[in-house]
Each structure stands twice: as structure tokens, then as C-alpha cells.
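Re: the pair you flagged

First of the two:
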Amino acid sequence: MTSQPNTPPKGQDRLDAEQVERFRREGSLLVREPVLPPAEFEALRAHFEQKLARLPADVRPETMDVPHFSDPSLFRWLLADDVLDLVEPLIGPDIALFASHFICKPRGNGKRVPWHEDSAYWKTMLDPLEVVTVWLAIDPSRMANGCMCVMPGTHASGKKGFSDYDPVDPATNVFNIEITPSQRDDTRAVACELEPNQASLHDARLIHGSQANTSAIRRCGYTMRYMPTRARLSNNARKVHQVYLARGRDHGGNTYADPARAYPELARYREAAGAGGH
């Protein structure tokens, strides 16, 4: 079936067998077709611009972590079939929303994202630790403005997403730690250059990062993170986090939050506990 121009394919047509195999092998995949219908993407972009305009002057735009806790209108996009249909071929039909994060690098001084594995931040939160991220480009994402780069195949390394980390300067980096140089090969990095409404998908265990944005062009993406419902959120994690049933049914004994209501107290607790940022 051939889709109409600028219209995302539907259902199982979103990823073919070769794309699924590439994701399994490399730990990431670029989606060049539009993720959302044009009107829905423009609505999301406009919604983000409003959120960015309300951000306090002393808050960096790279740190807009779990915005859906206090802004349930984001579930219009987080639970959209157009997005879930990208995830289902990779983790199955029973899907929970794990997290989301606007990471916006302003032009001129956008912070660097150190080399890391998402799984290193979540290793006490989920069992098994299976998360797929849909990194949706809000702006053009290029090498010049600090696009994400990945190290293909590192999700299948012997460390399984738990490398050793060294401290880095938080004044110039989004996170304050980075995978130690002896445990990564920077020459393997591949740039994920994207147009708005395109996406990259990546495994939680994949090594990835991005350079600072010193260009004259902003770089923003919305990370939408999903897990199979067989993964269970730990009791300790529930103090600072929650998950939402996105499709299908539960297999892990999880308790799911209500996407129709806001949880601003949880967002504040996470910030106070230092849980923000990833």
C-alpha cells in the first residue's frame, strides 16, 4: 500500500521486516516518513512553543523532563496511534508510556549531551529494562546544530547498557556524567540528521549523545519513551515516577496513572529529588 504524500502509513505498514531487523542489529533506526499527520505535528510544535515561552528565565530549555506529568494535553500525541504503530513492531502490542522529555538546544549556547546509555539512569526502575525511544524532530536536526549521534550495535555489548561513567562539567553538559573514554569508541558515531516530523528510534541500552549547539539554528526534539507492559516499575521508582497504559493490557502487575489528570506534585517531587534531566 502506498501512502499519500506527507501522510504517515498506518498500522503494521509503519515498519517493515528489514527495518525491524536493522533496529535489532544496530539498536537504532531513522524514520524518514512523517511521524504525525501535518496538522497534528503543527499542533504539537505550537504547543511546545507555548510551553517554551512560559519557561522561567532561569530554567534551561534542555531540562523539560516528563512534561506530561503536569500537562496532560500532551497525551494527544504520546498516545497517538501514529506513534504507537512505530513502537509495536519492536516491543509488541502491549505498550506502556514510560517517559517523555522535550530537549531543546537554543541557538548559540545549546548544551552538549554527553555519551550515555539511557538504561544507566533507569537500572533500578524497570525489570526487565526494555525501553524504546521515539526521538521526534521538532526542528531540523543537523550536525551543525547538535543532532543526536549513535554508536550502532553498542546496545548488544557485554555491558548491556551499564558502562562506567566519569564526571563532566554540568555548566556545558546536559548531564553531569559521561561514559568513560576507555569504554567507548567515538569513531563509531553516526549522525541522526532529521527534518521536522521525522524521527529516530533507539534502544535504551544504545550509546548515544550530541555536540553543543553553537549554530544560529535552534534544535529541539521530543523524546517519547515506551516499554512493553511485561516490564515492571519498581516500588522505589513509583515514589518519583509513574507509567501509563498506552495500548493493550498489562503483563507486569503495574499500576497505571490516569492520562486525563495532571500530577504537578509528582513533577515537583522529581525535581526536588534530582530525578529530572532524563
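Second of the two:
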Amino acid sequence: MSTQPGKDLETFDNPHPGRDYSVRIRIPEFTCLCPKTGQPDFAVLNLEYVPDQRCVELKSLKLYIWSFRDQGAFHEDVTNRMLDKLVEACQPHFMRLTADFNVRGGIYTTVVAEHRDPTWQTPGKVELP
């Protein structure tokens, strides 16, 4: 596997496809460029998903995230494009990408994008005593 930034996402077979469980991945070093000024934007990405048959491979995810470092992108666009690519690769039951961007000009931006498979039945909430 390459150690250079890339747009390919690798997946592997879900080891427990008969169970709904969540995967949570925190990516604290996302960077891209402001398309207006060319200055760097920094964000913490939080990816949460309920896999179906495929899970995202973490090194390929890291290289994919790294590929945005020198690209100009609006926060809203880059978050939705990343989610679309991840959904295409994994075909999850549910996926949410939260991009929490650092302050720029006194303004913080958080973008939350979600995907839900329309055929998936969300499990009921469990209340423990």
C-alpha cells in the first residue's frame, strides 16, 4: 500500500455482518485550503458508521484524508464529498461525518452530513436499569 496521499479507499469484509454495531473514528489533523484566500483550514473529523458488508480500511482512510491538504474547498462541500466517497466505498447502513473546523476570522464552522440506507431498520433504544 502506498504512503502517498490518494483518492482510493480500501475496504475489508465486515467480520460481524449479522450484528448492528457502530464504528467511531476520530481524525484530528484534517487540513485543506480556503478556496478564497489559499490559507490553510484545519478540522477535527469524526466519522461514525454502522457497517453492512464492508468496513473502511484505516490506512487508506488516512491517505484519502491527506489528499485534501493542498486542495481548495469550502467546508460544506468537502464534508459532503468525503461522506459521498465513504458511502460509495462501504455501503453502510448508516454513516455520519462531522467536520469541526478551527476558528477562522472569529467564526467556527461545524458541518454534519449523514447517510441512511432506506431499507435499514434502526434498532430501538435500550434503557438499562
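The helical segments are 58-66, 75-90.

-B.
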